[in-house]
Design a protein that fits this description.
Length: 328
């Protein structure tokens, strides 16, 4: 049975930053909209659903968890803690900014059974970070990653592609650096232009052109294997297709099945390399058993691509092959 997380989105309504891509609204007087009661209810609902929560986590998403006031943060953690203590969940994950972790705060997280700390790094290029109003530096990213690892947490890293001032080479450097800082999991988010953001103003004024979907897929198809083949699973590619995103989306490479597109692109390139010196006809290619549909491409587009060129691809699964590995 697949495990489930109890996920809570914890907006930090008092964020002092103004990242170019963020549509967080101005301060509303409340620090966050999530209460300890919400934590209890979400956890209980997940347990009552009968899903496997014992291997899941209570997850506080939102990106600025450790910037909350100490009382607010500990109240949320205290509401989650009993569910970990009694074994209903395996742990707690939080996400925060690289400049909002310290020995002190990490020690506190440890006391409440937090197991995973995700850092919204976005880039390791100081010029890109500065241009996008992130308010932290590459050194903050490196220090935070090393601190999180030193305290024994699983380290999740989040990076973006297509930010103003960034390039494909820059994104690949970011991935390599995040790997060298000890990432355990990664999330990759192509930059989207949301209404009401500084980036929207730049886009509307013609000062910023987002990646096209094809460009984002091509770059992510280089980044994802970089992480995966270094033992770092990419646990998310692209933002969830929630209604608020669709309503606020002005431009950018959004696709609800971005992961399938990216994985399909990786397999397509590898199959092309495998077949380029082979004659047309029928070819059997082996991929990981769980990845047969990824290898076939989104809506079977990889098979169709080869068929156009006179190749009929037969895919077969082998449990021993990992994501992106092929044999033929
Ligand atoms: S993305 Fe930037 S502006 Fe938005 S909440 Fe996070 S730190 Fe604040």
């Amino acid at each position: 049975m697949k495990h489930v997380n109890a996920a809570l989105f914890v907006p930090f309504l008092g964020c002092p930053h103004r990242c170019s891509f963020c549509d967080q609204k101005a301060i509303t007087g409340r620090e966050t909209t999530v209460t300890p009661q919400d934590v209890t209810e979400v956890a209980q609902t997940a347990i009552a659903s009968g899903a496997d929560t014992k291997h899941g986590q209570i997850a506080f998403f939102g990106g600025s968890f450790t910037m909350l006031r100490r009382e607010t943060m500990t109240a949320l953690l205290a509401a989650a803690f009993p569910f970990v203590e009694n074994g209903a969940f395996a742990g707690i994950r939080i996400s925060t900014r690289p400049d909002a972790v310290s020995d002190d705060v990490l020690s506190l997280l440890k006391r409440y059974c937090v197991t995973t700390v995700e850092l919204g790094c976005q880039s390791t290029d100081d010029a890109v970070l500065q241009r996008n109003g992130r308010g932290h530096t590459r050194a903050d990213v490196e220090n935070a990653c090393r601190l999180v690892k030193a305290h024994g947490f699983e380290l999740g890293v989040q990076m973006m592609t297509g930010l103003p001032g960034d390039s494909d080479a820059g994104a690949l450097r970011t991935a390599d650096e995040l790997l060298s800082f000890g990432a355990d999991t990664a999330r990759i988010y192509p930059t989207l232009v949301l209404r009401g953001t500084p980036l929207a103003a730049d886009y509307l004024a013609g000062r910023y052109a987002p990646q096209t979907l094809d460009e984002a897929v091509a770059l992510c198809a280089k980044l994802a294997p970089r992480f995966e083949e270094n033992g770092v699973p990419v646990i998310r590619l692209g933002l969830h297709a929630v209604a608020s995103l669709r309503n606020n989306l002005l431009a950018g490479p959004f696709h609800p099945a971005l992961r399938e597109l990216v994985d399909g692109a990786v397999y397509l390139e590898r199959m092309q390399n495998l077949l380029h010196s082979r004659p047309q006809g029928v070819h059997t290619i082996t991929v990981g058993s769980r990845f047969l549909s990824r290898a076939a491409g989104h809506n079977g587009r990889n098979k169709a691509f080869f068929k156009d060129k006179g190749y009929t691809i037969r895919l077969q699964g082998d449990d021993a092959l990992r994501l992106y590995e092929i044999r033929g």
